Amino acid sequence: MAGQTLYDKLWNAHEVTKRDDGSSLIYIDRHLLHEVTSPQAFEGLELANRAPWRLSANIASPDHNVPTVTKERSAGVTGIKDKVSRLQVVTLDENCTKFDIAEFTINDARQGILHVVGPEQGLVLPGMTVVCGDSHTATHGALGCLAHGIGTSEVEHVLATQCLIQKKSKNMQIRVTGQLGAGVTSKDVVLAIIAKIGTAGGTGHAIEFAGQVFEDMSMEGRMTVCNMAIEAGARVGMVAVDDTTIDYVKGRPYAPNESQWPQAEAYWRTLYSDDDAVFDTVVEIDGSQIAPQVSWGTSPEMVVDITQSVPTPDQAIDEAQKEGWLRAYTYMGLEAGQKITDIQLDRIFIGSCTNSRIEDLRDAAAVIKGRKVADNIKEAIVVAGSGQVKLQAEAEGLDALFTEAGFEWREPGCSMCLAMNADKLEPQEHCASTSNRNFEGRQGNGGRTHLVSPAMAAAAALAGHFVDVRTF
Ligand SMILES: CC(C)[C@H](C(=O)O)[C@@H](O)C(=O)O
Ligand code: SF4
Predict the structure, then answer these.
(1) What is the DSSP string of 128-145?
(2) Co-location of 44 and 159 in the same domain
(3) Do residues 335 and 391 both lie within one domain?
(4) Is position 469 within any domain?
(5) HEC profile of 195-250
(6) 459 within ligand 1 shell (Cβ under 6 A)
(7) Per residue in 336-379, pLDDT tens?
């Protein structure tokens, strides 16, 4: 028998039963809940007169709708101006109280974006199956677990049964070899992967990221990459367990205690793809060739190197791509062939579940070196992914570096990643954003998003336009 991939191992360890139609019933270890996709699930549970099947598997926190301005945040839920947003957060609080589910509420020091909070608290551990009513749940695969987003009806299903009906995906390995150059980060790696394979490249697959670049990468970096597996078309992204994983988990509040640790670690150490495991699809990229990336268009695959230009229609591989580009030039207000470094910016957003961990903030802060945000930038905000990241950054003095340069230092939440709270772009504004999605209207009606790394966003804030952080 051929060896098993990491995905096979995780799947087999959680398969309760195979069904006649080729799907399987899978046991779920951890369920993360936020205010947007849980209300109807709780309502369904109540109507069916059911209780959550395993309370301790669930953890909730509001993240999408919370205000990030300190004055509004300190007022708690009453500080949320938008009625619908407030109702969602209040409803989450009420449901968690009613069903006895643990919640890091709006002003809890542990509140934050679930995909930052889960690993940080040790609530997500290697070997687990992890779900959340949120497509970026793939993030958690960085810890060597099987994690993916689910819809609201599945949220109800998991609450009620702790199980899910799933169809197994194909195995894909993306190998990034060699070493990254200075100034090139995990965000550039994942954007370069998507530029290469396209937003449908991973469709139907569970992606394992492997190779020297991921072996050398920190847990924060691995989370950035797995986070965007969904933008590469896959629901699942994973990295094998190694010393980096084990060291990251050790000592986290909900991680196994000392007496449980040896047993847990012994199991976790088995979570890698066997040498003779077979992948349905393999992609290889030379990491040393990756440059800082910038998205110019309205899809995460419309990405080029900072040294390049907006592509011209004759470079499109087919008519469909050409059509997409023509539409994107207009929406983004860019000319074909225009240099990326000529794109002037209006706002800067450093945050989101892709890039709001401590290492991301350190990377951005390191670029500042006493310089100031350029005059043409209307607003530059830094939004830590969780209360814990914010505290850590403040302990390191990063907040002062940012505010002295002219950035605003905000409270944790999804913020300007999506236009669901008060942090939005105005029509036609260009934003250098460390988030993961750049479709039309994502950051506000008519807003123009450019996806970049935290270091590139910081450099752009200081220059007022995109610059190559390697020579800035
Ligand atoms: C609101 C939520 C359902 C959504 C998701 O699933 O990803 C959001 O987090 C996003 O990033 O678009
Ligand atoms: S930060 Fe953005 S991508 Fe992540 S969960 Fe929030 S809205 Fe979705």
Answers:
(1) -EEEESSGGGGGGGGGS-
(2) yes
(3) yes
(4) no
(5) HHHCCCCCCCEEEEEECHHHHHCCHHHHHHHHHCCHHHCCCEEECCCCHHHHHHHC
(6) no
(7) 999 999 999 999 999 999 999 999 999 999 999 899 999 999 99
For residue 416, the domain's CATH number is 3.30.499.10
Nearest residue (by CA) to ligand 1, atom 2, is 134
For ligand 1, the distance from its centroid to the CA atom of residue 261, given in whole angstroms, is 34
Q: Is residue 418 part of a domain?
A: yes
Residue nearest to atom 9 of ligand 1 (CA): 134
Distance CA 247, CA 15 (A): 28
Is residue 2 pLDDT above 90, yes or no? no
What is the CA 269 to chain-centroid distance, rounded? 25
The tens digit of pLDDT for each residue in 113-150 reads 999 999 999 999 999 999 999 999 999 999 999 999 99
- pTM for the full predicted model: 0.98
As for the ipTM of the complex, it is: 0.99
Choose the final residue of a domain: 113, 146, 166: 166
- Asked whether residue 146 falls in the same domain as residue 188, the answer is no
Q: Whose CA is nearest to atom 4 of ligand 2?
A: 353
pLDDT of residue 198: 98
Q: Are residues 208 and 225 in the same domain?
A: yes
Tell me, using a 6 A CB cutoff, whether residue 134 lines ligand 1. Answer: yes
CA 115 to ligand 2 center in whole angstroms: 8
Closest-lying ligand to the alpha carbon of 114? 2
Query: What's the number of domains the chain is made of?
Result: 3
Claim to verify: residue 313 and residue 433 sit in the same structural domain: yes
Q: For residue 415, which atom of ligand 2 is closest to its CA?
A: 1
Mean pLDDT, rounded, of the chain? 98
- Are 160 and 221 part of one and the same domain? no
Domain interval for residue 316: 293-463
Please tell me whether 414 is known to bind a ligand. Answer: yes
The whole-angstrom separation of Cα 285 and Cα 24 is 33
The CATH number linked to 176 is 3.40.1060.10
Domain boundary pick from 123, 144, 166: 166
Domain-embedded: residue 252? no
* Distance between Cα 275 and ligand 1 center (Å): 36
What's the CA-to-centroid distance between 156 and ligand 1, angstroms? Answer: 17
Do residues 204 and 266 share a domain? Answer: yes
Mean pLDDT of 190-217: 98
> Over the stretch 419-465, which tens digit does the pLDDT of each residue have?
999 999 999 999 999 999 999 999 999 999 999 999 999 999 999 99
Phi-psi label, residue 161: left if phi above 0, alpha if psi -120 to 50, beta otherwise: alpha
Report the distance separating Cα 110 and Cα 391, nearest Å: 10
Tell me the mean pLDDT in the region 243-252: 98
Ligand 2 closest atom vs CA 417: 2
pLDDT of residue 358: 98
* Atom number of ligand 1 nearest to Cα 36: 1
* Selection from 472, 441, 449 nearest residue 352 by Cα: 449
Residue 48 falls inside a structural domain:
yes
Find the 250 Cα to ligand 1 centroid distance in Å: 30
Please tell me whether residues 62 and 203 are part of one structural domain: no
Q: State the pLDDT confidence band at 5, using cuts at 50, 70 and 90.
A: very high
Name residue, tokens 């750049």.
438
Nearest listed ligand to the Cα of residue 418: 2
| pLDDT tops 90 at residue 249 | yes
